[in-house]
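This entry is set out below.
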Amino acid sequence: MIALIEKIRGGNDLSAFDVQEAVAFLLSDSIEAKTKADFLTALHEKGESAGEIAGFVRVLLERAVPLQIDGAGEPIIDVCGTGGDGIDLFNVSTAITFILAAGGATVVKHGNRRVTSRSGSADVLEALSIAIDLEPDNLSECIKRLGCGFVYARTYHPAFRAMAEMRLRLARKHQRTIFNLLGPLLNPARPKRQLIGVFAPHLTTLFAEVLRQLDCERAWIVSGTAVDTLTLDDVSTIGPTSVAELNAGKITSAVLDTRWLAIPQATLPELIGGDARTNAETITQILAGAETGPKRDLVVVNAAAGFVVAGLANEMNAGIAMAREEIDSGRALEKLKALQNYRL
């Protein structure tokens, strides 16, 4: 691993073979935690290339618990954010899971417990009384029956369990690593469509290139304006959102401002969440139609983006109309209740 660290510090990218070795070292009990941290820090300081990120994804997916979801309806999509934006919102990507599933998408939601936020997707789903630890056969059946299901990273990625303590230690030092990028890319179901939120605008095109190398069919990677230098790993209703789209191998970039779509401009305090219990209540209130303000608007526009990526809406206005209909009809809330009541 020392040789790999020296290679990186020399400004050189890792080869596919180097990445295989690096993952083996990171998972080895014989390598000191400090050496592993030095490697991850050096790689981040150099700047992870698209090829390196795609290489880590391939190697880690080879080590993941397989998840086959044959028989589920198309389109299959994942909606996930990197986190790490320094803003505690209310698990927006989890909220839109129920809306997209109600609207005809099959949502295979990949996520984890909190690392840098007050509530990760696993935490808020647990607070919603939804099982987060389904084994592959049970989860596959859940997805086929209900059109959605949650893939808990620690269950399906032994590597995440092995490195959880080290990642937490680095997070406490505010040291980002490649693992702050990998989460949305490691879904073992390997969905061909993805809506991914990232914590910095420059990552949108990088992620699009990674997904192209991983043979993704269609994706939006978004990073939204918050306030000052802060950004959201979601489509923003506060200000413009940087969007990189991958569609049939072609990458394009754009700026989306939801004010163009007649969505009222929000302020950051209006969108802040809380702990898992608080966020679970917020999601329930939005889906039940009791929350009609800025938080609902944020969910609606992000669900709209999901409908576009899934191919169920041609453009954002149509997606917004679909999202509102799934909430207002009660179908999104029914999806939530179905998951709460799911038993094999």
